[in-house]
Recover the amino acids of this structure.
């Protein structure tokens, strides 16, 4: 089993993408981040944990508070590096599935 | 069902793994690779040659606006229907050396299947360059389309 967090799985979730957008401009505490969502606080915490584990977010201790900020380097790596390649294959495979599903229904009749 | 295509490329390794689960029975997924007419449809390319057998070879080319913009070829080392294809892949007229590809087809349920493509490159540098290529291509494509539209407006 690969226990390492999959960074693409992490950014596939809309709430997690929203969190990333939110902390792009400024560092925020978990509470401040959670106040932007209607989701329960523990759910937001879980999202933060996943984003931190795959290094898209970094934690910074400031007094008694922990601030989350974006790990621009990691995000850039994901956005610029593999994502276009992954997307190309994803589009290609979506097309494959579509072509073969059509083929299947045509050959049924 | 998880439809996302996953690409696993570890730092410093001259290989990558692409995985995808399909809402297709295994036989249909394999057919998409086996039949030239179907392969052409989803790859958006023209198959020049496809000898799907051990020590066979293949070649295809992609045209844009009547010009051949991409040509690739390779040799098939192993071809086991509904199980695996081992082949080389080489892009013509590029600096990229040939790469080795292991394609594995698996049945998940009667209606779903998984494809795993393991690609081995000559070096880490070539792998990383290839990963950056589709992005450059995307830009060129968009640029060409813009030119085309601009051309029609004249």
């Amino acid at each position: 089993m690969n226990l390492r967090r999959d960074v693409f799985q992490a950014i596939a979730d809309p709430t997690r993408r929203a969190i990333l957008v939110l902390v792009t401009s400024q560092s925020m505490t978990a509470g401040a981040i959670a106040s932007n969502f209607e989701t329960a606080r523990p759910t937001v915490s879980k999202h933060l944990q996943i984003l931190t584990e795959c290094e898209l977010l970094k934690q910074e201790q400031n007094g008694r508070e922990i601030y989350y900020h974006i790990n621009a380097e990691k995000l850039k790596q994901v956005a610029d590096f593999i994502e276009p390649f992954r997307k190309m294959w994803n589009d290609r495979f979506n097309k494959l599935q579509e072509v073969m599903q059509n083929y299947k229904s045509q050959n049924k009749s | 069902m998880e439809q996302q295509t996953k690409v696993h490329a570890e730092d410093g390794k001259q290989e990558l793994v692409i995985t995808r689960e399909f809402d297709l029975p295994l036989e249909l997924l394999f057919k998409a690779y086996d039949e030239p007419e179907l392969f052409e449809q989803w790859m958006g390319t023209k198959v020049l040659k496809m000898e799907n057998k051990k020590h066979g070879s293949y070649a295809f080319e992609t045209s844009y606006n009547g010009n051949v913009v991409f040509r690739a070829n390779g040799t098939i080392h192993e071809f086991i229907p509904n199980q695996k294809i081992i082949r080389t892949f080489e892009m013509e007229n590029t600096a990229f050396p040939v790469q080795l590809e292991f394609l594995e087809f698996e049945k998940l349920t009667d209606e779903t299947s998984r494809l795993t493509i393991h690609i081995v490159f000559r070096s880490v540098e070539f792998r990383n360059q290839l990963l950056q290529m589709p992005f450059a291509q995307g830009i060129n494509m968009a640029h060409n389309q813009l030119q085309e539209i601009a051309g029609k407006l004249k």
The longest helix of chain B spans residues 124-153. The mean pLDDT of chain B is 86.
